[in-house]
Design goal:
- By secondary structure, the protein is of the alpha/beta class.
- It has 2 domains: 188 residues, 3-Layer(aba) Sandwich (Rossmann fold), CATH 3.40.50.300; 61 residues, Winged helix-like DNA-binding domain superfamily/Winged helix DNA-binding domain (Arc Repressor Mutant, subunit A, Orthogonal Bundle), CATH 1.10.10.10.
- Helix content is 34%, strand content 19%.
- The strands form 3 sheets. Strands 5-4-6-7-3-8-9-10-11 form a 9-stranded mixed beta sheet. A two-stranded antiparallel sheet has the order 1-2. A two-stranded antiparallel sheet has the order 12-13.
- Strand 12 and strand 13 form a beta hairpin.
- Helix 9 crosses helix 11.
């Protein structure tokens, strides 16, 4: 990428109206949001988090190449072709070339409208100007990807709280995204501790998710899918997508149908085994035993109960379909033998 123009990013932003009277606002015509990937990545700031080595970089690079060529994103979603900037800040040129060659070996094609960058200053040290410079040279830009957010977030103001620091760091990207009407995708990590609400998995404080227009979390699936992509945001409907990963060409594919359908296939068998061996457990205990998403376990149990595969008591405990006699001898959860249920 060429060196940034000497003007600071703030001085090069196009004008954007921010004030109306109520009657003026009602008469105003606003264009529909620009989508990098319809239904998934809209204009504004998008935050994608996932565990290390799960395939976030393969996912984001694949999205960038598909958009730059106008190919199907995730082998399933039609997109509009346009320039994409992908800042692979944890890669070298050699590693990035090897990754792209692996992707192309699977039948892909080079993407002339995809700009690949492996070094960029932080946002508080001129990185914002570099991004604005590229956007000025590519007025039809469709997407900017920062891999990873932590590499480019910049310095924290002295004395700022963790929440304020996270919110300010994310807002530096959001301001540019909003001004230019271009979707930004920040690649980030999840925290080590689990969480019942998948949005709470994002590393850092709620300042990050609060500043972002949309939050996406890629998680490993326990079912027949390789992963589940959770999405929620201001312009995007909350959804869960089952995902399949091809390690030969590094390609993620969105599978048809609800993600829960793919998770249930293995989960049902595991639940039946535990309920038969230890009748009387509640959904939270069963989810803990399986190291599974509590919401998925609750949905699975409800379906199994509706189909007569398990029996639910008024107090929310689950038993095999036939009365199992005295359940008072159920051992505590910590004594369950579940070694083969450890997630991958």
């Amino acid at each position: 990428m060429s060196a940034a123009r000497p003007l600071h990013a703030v001085e090069t932003r196009p004008e954007r109206r921010t004030r109306w009277t109520d009657s003026e606002l009602m008469r105003e015509h606003f264009p529909e949001p620009r989508w990098a990937v319809p239904g998934l990545l809209s204009e504004g700031l998008n935050l994608l988090a996932g565990a290390p080595k799960l395939g976030k970089s393969w996912l984001s690079l694949g999205l960038g190449a598909a958009i730059a060529n106008g190919d199907l994103a995730l082998n399933a979603i039609e997109v509009e072709r346009g320039p994409v900037l992908y800042c692979a800040l944890e890669d070298t040129g050699r590693r990035l070339q090897r990754r792209r060659r692996q992707m192309l070996a699977g039948g892909g094609r080079t993407a002339p409208l995809l700009t690949l960058e492996t070094a960029c200053p932080t946002m508080t040290n001129g990185g914002d100007a570099v991004i604005v410079d590229w956007l000025a040279d590519n007025p039809a830009a469709r997407l900017v990807i920062i891999d990873t957010f932590e590499k480019m977030r910049g310095a924290t103001l002295p004395g700022a709280s963790a929440y304020a620091a996270d919110y300010a760091a994310a807002s530096r990207f959001k301001t540019i995204a909003d001004t230019y009407g271009v979707p930004f995708l920040l690649i980030h990590h999840v925290r080590k501790q689990g969480a019942e609400d998948w949005q709470d998995l994002v590393s850092g404080t709620n300042g990050l998710t609060g500043a972002a227009d949309a939050t996406l979390v890629l998680k490993r699936s326990r079912g027949s899918a390789d992963g589940v992509l959770y999405v929620t945001g201001r312009d995007v409907e909350e959804a869960e997508y089952a995902m399949s990963f091809d390690p030969q060409n590094g390609a993620w594919t969105k599978l048809d149908g609800p993600a829960a359908d793919y998770e249930l296939r293995d989960t049902r068998a595991d639940l039946m085994r535990i309920i038969r061996d230890h009748p009387g457990l509640k959904p939270a205990q069963l989810a803990e035993a399986l190291h599974a998403n509590p919401a998925t376990v609750r949905k699975t149990l409800a379906r199994m109960a509706d189909q007569g595969q398990v029996r639910k008591t008024p107090s929310g405990e689950y038993y095999p379909p036939e009365p199992s006699g005295n359940a008072s001898g159920t051992p505590p959860l910590s004594h369950l033998s579940l070694s083969h249920s450890t997630p991958r």
